[in-house]
Each structure stands twice: as structure tokens, then as C-alpha cells.
From TrEMBL:
<feature type="domain" description="Adenosine deaminase">
    <location>
        <begin position="11"/>
        <end position="324"/>
    </location>
</feature>
<keyword id="KW-0862">Zinc</keyword>
<protein>
    <submittedName>
        <fullName>Adenine deaminase</fullName>
    </submittedName>
</protein>
<comment type="similarity">
    <text>Belongs to the metallo-dependent hydrolases superfamily. Adenosine and AMP deaminases family.</text>
</comment>
<dbReference type="GO" id="GO:0046872">
    <property type="term" value="F:metal ion binding"/>
</dbReference>
<dbReference type="Pfam" id="PF00962">
    <property type="entry name" value="A_deaminase"/>
</dbReference>
<keyword id="KW-0378">Hydrolase</keyword>
<dbReference type="InterPro" id="IPR032466">
    <property type="entry name" value="Metal_Hydrolase"/>
</dbReference>
<dbReference type="InterPro" id="IPR006330">
    <property type="entry name" value="Ado/ade_deaminase"/>
</dbReference>
<keyword id="KW-0479">Metal-binding</keyword>
<dbReference type="InterPro" id="IPR001365">
    <property type="entry name" value="A_deaminase_dom"/>
</dbReference>
<dbReference type="GO" id="GO:0016814">
    <property type="term" value="F:hydrolase activity, acting on carbon-nitrogen (but not peptide) bonds, in cyclic amidines"/>
</dbReference>
<dbReference type="GO" id="GO:0019239">
    <property type="term" value="F:deaminase activity"/>
</dbReference>
Amino acid sequence: TENELLNWQLPLAELHCHIDGTTSPALALRQARKYNVDISDVTNGDQFLWGNFSQFLDAYDRIAALFRDEADHKLLTFDYLKQLSEQGTIYSELFISPCHAEQSGLGAEHYVEALSTAAIEAKEAFGIECRFIVTGVRHYGAEKVTAAAKFAATCKAPLITGFGMAGDERFGDIRDYAAAFDIARDAGLGITVHSGEFAGAEEIERTIDSLRPDRLGHGVRAVESERLMKGIAEQGIVLECCPGSNIALGVFPSFEAHPLRLLKDAGCRITVSSDDPPFFKTTLKREYEIAAETHGFTEAELVELTREALCAAFIDARSRERLL
Ligand code: ES4
Ligand code: ZN
């Protein structure tokens, strides 16, 4: 029954979560007071306020700007990993944005140092394993995304194991970002791209062809093309599905209408993640619950979600074996 699944101590793993998007309204208010910033237009203290994806991205940038020094970033990251481990999470991969950090006055090296310290301390305290994906923001333009890739390729931080791109999928031409992804791939980083949340099948295909990603952020609109779903399944490209995020942003009208089951039935490798949990009023545990309650995932299928995430994780073979 539902309750047995909810109470069951299932190990969770997530591949798709933006670190600044883990800020709770309460923490946002504390940071706003600390820096004397008015954020009353983006949160009422109870929830974040936004109406569409563009407004969400603006709110996200405003919240990210409240984390300015090493201590702020370390606090945010340690706190989120603690929350995750309380939900039974054993592995987390976080999207980090040196570009956002620099906009808020902290150099990329110091930023990564602070996040890495938080990850090491969280592992010591809770046993949770964590890796970082340096993330370019598409609507900041190809030049900034390339700079992020160059940083990721050269920074030598052991916990940075991937490169990705977030932001507005409708901005620019995806082919302009190929050079950035070549730099990251040549450096041995795992590759993931947000595509197929707001963009349709054609754009997903273009993205796969020009960036050759290991995984797609969302990718759920692949459901619109049988041929594309088949291609994704055959190439073994992993989908980072975030149902709660998709429903909050209106990509699908209801949890029932989310294609999680359809994509799985088409043979795609699927995982679930929380994306920006407090913004979308979700948690990683909640995403597993949606799979169970709305899409009828059995206990074995929930275990498979975690295994798939670990298999698709950007992590060294030995650490993966320890988690599996
Ligand atoms: C995003 Cl730039 C950014 N931040 C957080 N969540 C996102 N989803 C898509 N782009
Ligand atoms: Zn995302």
C-alpha cells in the first residue's frame, strides 16, 4: 500500500538539483536581513512568489545573490545535504554556478572551495556522498557558458565531475554552445544539458546531435516523438526527470499527465530529482512518492530509480561500487 512505500527506508539518489534553488524561504529571509536586501517581491516568508518560468529564473537569481561569501555557500550546501540525508539520500549531484557566485562577489575558486568543504563535512557527519556539476546559464550567452566550461576543465577540484547547462532553453541556438561542451568533454567531465522541459522534440534532437550529452536535464518532452524516445533509449541517454518541477511550472497539467511511466515504458533510462525543491514545493522524497502514488512504481521500480541514478552518476568507478 501507499503507506508502506512511504515509510519504507528506501535509499534515495538525485542527479538534478540547483544549489541556490535549495534555499528555503526562511533562509532567504535570514540572508536578506544579513545583507539588508528587500526580497518582499519574491517571497512572503512562507513561499517563493513567481508566475512563470521567466519570473522563476528572476526570483532564482535574486535568491542566489543573497549568498556572497564562503560561509554563506558552505552553510547552504551543508544544510541541504543534511536535509537530504534525513530523507534517506545516499548520493546527490548538485548544479553549481561559478557565474552566479562571481556576480555576488565571490571568485570561482573560493566558491568551489567552500562547497567542497561543505560536502566533505556532510559526508563525515551523515555519510552522504556528493559531486558537483559546473553549470553554464544558457541565457547568459555562449561566451559565459564557455568561460564556465574552461573553469570546470581546469579547476582540478576533485568533487567537480560534470559540466552542464541550465537557463532558458528557448534562448539562442544550441549549436553555439558546442565549443563549450567540447572543452568540458575533452577534460573528462560528464555532460548534462537542460533540454526538453520547454523545448520540443526537434530542439532535443539538435541538442543531442550538437552537444552529445550523457544525460538530459528533464528531456520529458521527448514523449512527443516516438522516434526520439527510441533514439534516447538506444543511446542510453539518461533522463533527469523532475515531475514536481514540471507540474509547478505548468509543463504538464497534473501529476497524472506527467510522462514518467511512458518514458520508462519506451525503454528510456529514467531517474527522479527535485530541481529547486522549495521553489516548487517538493523534496526528493516527494518525487519518489509521486512515482509510487501517481505512476504506480513498485518497490522494485523505486529501487531501480536509485540504481539508475547511481549508474548514471558522474562519479569514479570505485565510489560508485561502494554506493551500489
Ligand atoms: C535553471 Cl538557471 C536555473 N536555475 C535553476 N533552475 C533552473 N531550471 C532551468 N534553469
Ligand atoms: Zn534544473
